[in-house]
Structures are given as structure tokens and as C-alpha cells.
Amino acid sequence: MINDEYFLAALRLASGNDPIPMQVSAAARDAYRLLVPEAATAAYAESATIRSVRDDDSSHLVRFIAAGLTFDLEVTEGDGLIDVAGHISPYPGEGALVDVRSPNLTLTRRIAHTGHFAATGLPPGWLSVVCHRPGHAPIQTTWVRIRP
Known about the structure:
The protein contains 2 helices and 10 strands. The longest helix has 12 residues, at about 5-15. Strands 1, 2, 3, 4, 5, 6, 7, 8, 9 and 10 form a 10-stranded mixed sheet that branches. Mean pLDDT is about 85; it is low at about 50-55. It has helices at about 5-15, 20-35; strands at about 40-50, 60-65, 70-80, 80-90, 95-100, 105-110, 115-120, 125-130, 140, 145.
């Protein structure tokens, strides 16, 4: 009787394929953890850059649209960190929450009755926002890269 592991190893050797490197598998697991089950994805609609009064700060205005919701995000860079001031319209309802995410950090915030929310102190790099509405599937923005 042939051991399955030895058989698969022999097939890999015969085909000249090496096993997947550990760092590739780790990166795949990290990416899978960022998945939001059953979420609709809001498409990138537009962007603008605005220089602030201080020379070392700038703001990016980004809009995403999906499933009847519009995400307007003002992303400000300063002191090596990112701050996000957002507005979701129309107001997603009582009990709605928003997750402002980077690959290594998620900040959960309540959404005010005006549709506004804010999150500060995120690392520069990739950013996504997920809106959780009671009784509805989540809506997430695509990932956008914010560079200092």
C-alpha cells in the first residue's frame, strides 16, 4: 500500500514543482482574514487631492457607491498616520456601524444620525471601509492605497 503523502511528494518531484513557500501561504491566510462574508462591494467613483493650510498635510477625497449607499471619505495624512472623516448617505439606520480597516488594524465606529463617522491614527497604506446595517448584508469599499 502506498502512503498518500509519499505519493504526492513523488508526483511533485517528478513534475519539477516545488511546494508553495511558507511566506506565500501566510500571505494568503492574511488576505483571507480580510474577507467580509456576503458583503457587497462599493465601486470607486471619484477622487481629489486638496492641500491643507499646513504644508506637511494633505487630504484625499474619495467616493464609493453601491447598493443605494454613497461613501464619501476625507483621508488626511499627517505625522506619519492617516485620519478618516467619513459620511455615508443616506443614513444607514439606527445601530449601523462602520469598520475602518487597514491590513493590520480595524477601528469600529458608530455612525451618527447625520451619517458621519471618524477614525484616527491608522497606518499609511491600504484602507477599506465596511458599513454594517442591521438586517442587511454589509457593504464594503474596495481597497484604496493612501501614500504619505
